[in-house]
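2024-03-11 09:14:02 DEBUG pipeline.ingest accepted 1 chain
2024-03-11 09:14:02 DEBUG pipeline.ingest length=99
2024-03-11 09:14:03 DEBUG pipeline.predict start
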Amino acid sequence: MNKADNTGIDLERIPDIPEGEPYSREWQAFKREVARLMAEGQQGRCAVFQGESLVGVWDSLFLADQAGRRQCGGKPFLIQAIQPVLKPMRWGYHRPCPS
């Protein structure tokens, strides 16, 4: 995939996180492995990465988070949905609170 579609941005078009920044190695590992994981039928599941290693793949964000906490020994890890695009995230709430 080389073009953006209406559901997100191609992973190939997203720049790497600068070396030395948090999660840069995990993000590079994800980008390296995502095509293989999709070819294996893992699309839609959640992958956990620590450093340059794939820890495993789970059916939901909740299960991936539980496994990451258990298997990564309290060290940082990245959970990423296995998909060919990165979907936009919505931050915050833009409607006024009722008074």
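2024-03-11 09:14:41 DEBUG pipeline.report Strands lie at 9-10, 46-50, 53-58, 78-81, 85-86.
2024-03-11 09:14:41 DEBUG pipeline.predict end
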